[in-house]
Design brief:
There is one protein chain. With about 425 residues, this protein is α+β, with helices and mostly antiparallel strands. The chain has a single domain, classed as Cytochrome P450 (Cytochrome p450, Orthogonal Bundle). Helices cover about 50% and strands about 10% of the residues. It has 17 helices and 10 strands. Strands 1-2-8-5-3 form a 5-stranded mixed beta sheet, sandwiched between helices. Strands 4-10-9 form a 3-stranded antiparallel beta sheet. Strands 6-7 form a two-stranded antiparallel ribbon. A hairpin with a 4-residue loop joins strand 1 and strand 2. Helix 4 crosses helix 11, helix 8 runs antiparallel to helix 13 and helix 11 packs across helix 13. The two termini are about 40 Å apart. The N terminus is likely disordered.
């Protein structure tokens, strides 16, 4: 969800949003239903069969379920993650965000993910230097060592919570190392809770309590990073924050927002793909080929089959057409990644099945266009390292208990994954 309108209001839609024809049937799309969250894929199938765009009144969005449309709209500059680079709230027919939520919006609005235009280009150019192929390759030995140590600890204990013991610590440690966050257990231990509270605002129609937690986390995380930035100004190190401190055309708020985004985006997808992926493998009773090619192919398939980010939203900056549906300026589209990644029109008759050898796999899990995930190469490295070590050190890995899903729909994951070795 874009910060400019989080949380969603519940009143009737603005005239510019309302569908030109009768509201499409919801075909069981219910993102607050535990049953739907547990398995949204049958509903996606019905959405794809029913058309290319569906008005969904509870969130005041147009649902877009097809791979071809989602891929095209991610690249279409008539849509944007924000609209404030072109319009005021009044001009766009939207209310300004609640002033009580200002710390969250300030943090989110200055981050790379939600910027558009020249500001996005400027900051992406600076941050992309941290994710070049050479930089990621230089991180590979560290990532593989950490993965081996974490999996080794899990195996030595005979099992445990795969999320808390392996899936979470690895990407958080890697991003913290890149940023230059001290390797202090207490300092790094706050990162994941802050991230979880902030990311709660990206769910649909977040509650006021969710907003309060996000505001509190935004204030605390921002204050921590400002203090760390001051330390790096006084004593630079060999890390990304030190590098950003020396950039003249980057404000301190942009630095803070960039660091928060790198942490949030840099571990949420990896954590949930690891846990979702192993739950799928254990449920299906299959294992990937542990060789480099087989492992890489399997990781791509697990990213496609149960994507950790089910939905990505865009504001409509100029009218667009999807078939016979006109979606007007001022509306919001919900691009259904989970549906697009299982669209038979792109992935063939086996789209709904897990195929760990799938070669042609243009999934949209990392997005597309100017907002394509900068950290995708690093995420792939981390996932290959974790899956490879688990296959090597814990070939008999099995579920110890049926996992409980997190209630959120947009960011798909479990509360834990208890395993035995």
């Amino acid at each position: 969800m874009d910060a400019a309108e989080a949380p969603h209001a519940t009143e009737a839609p603005h005239a510019a949003e309302a569908p030109h024809a009768a509201e499409a049937p919801h075909v069981a799309f219910d993102p607050w239903s535990p049953e739907f969250v547990a398995d949204p894929y049958p509903a996606y199938e019905r959405l794809r069969a029913a058309g290319r765009a569906h008005w969904y009144a509870p969130t005041r969005q147009w649902l877009v379920p097809h791979h071809e449309d989602v891929s095209a709209l991610l690249r279409d500059r008539r849509l944007g993650r924000t609209y404030t680079h072109r319009f005021t709230h009044a001009e766009f027919g939207r209310e300004a965000p609640d002033p009580a939520h200002e710390p969250f919006h300030t943090l989110n609005d200055h981050g790379l993910l939600d910027l558009e235009g020249a500001d996005h280009t400027r900051i992406r150019r600076l941050v992309s230097k941290a994710f070049t192929p050479r930089t990621v390759e230089n991180l590979a030995p560290t990532v593989r060592r950490l993965a081996a140590e974490l999996v080794g600890g899990l195996v030595a204990d005979g099992g445990g919570d795969l999320m808390a013991r392996v899936a979470e610590p690895l990407p958080v440690a890697v991003i913290a190392e890149m940023l230059g966050i001290p390797a202090d257990e207490e300092e790094r231990g706050r990162l994941r809770p802050w991230s979880a509270d902030i990311c709660g605002m990206f769910e649909l129609n977040p509650s006021e309590e969710t907003a309060r937690r996000a505001v509190r986390a935004s204030v605390e995380f921002s204050a921590y990073l400002r203090e760390l930035i001051a330390r790096r100004r006084a004593r630079p190190g060999d890390d990304l924050i030190s590098a950003l401190v020396g950039v003249a055309d980057l404000t301190e708020q942009e630095m803070v927002s960039t660091c928060v985004l790198l942490l949030n985006a840099g571990h949420e997808a990896t954590v949930n793909t690891t846990v979702n992926g192993w739950w799928t493998l254990l449920r299906e009773g299959v294992r990937p080929d542990p060789g480099p090619v087989g492992l890489s192919t399997a990781v791509e398939e697990l990213l496609r089959y149960d994507t950790p980010l089910q939905m990505f939203e865009r504001w409509v900056l100029d009218d667009i057409e999807l078939g016979d549906v006109v979606i007007p300026r001022g509306a919001e589209v919900a691009l259904l990644f989970g549906s697009a990644n299982r669209d038979p029109a792109r992935f063939g008759p086996t789209a709904g099945r897990l195929d760990l050898t799938r070669a042609d796999n243009p999934h949209l899990t990392f997005g597309a266009g100017i907002h394509y995930c900068l950290g995708a190469p690093l995420a792939r490295l981390e996932l290959s390292a974790v899956f490879g070590e688990l296959l090597r050190q814990a070939p008999g890995l099995r579920l110890a208990a049926e996992p409980e899903r997190k209630p959120g729909y947009v960011i798909r994951g479990f509360t834990e994954l208890l395993v035995e070795v």
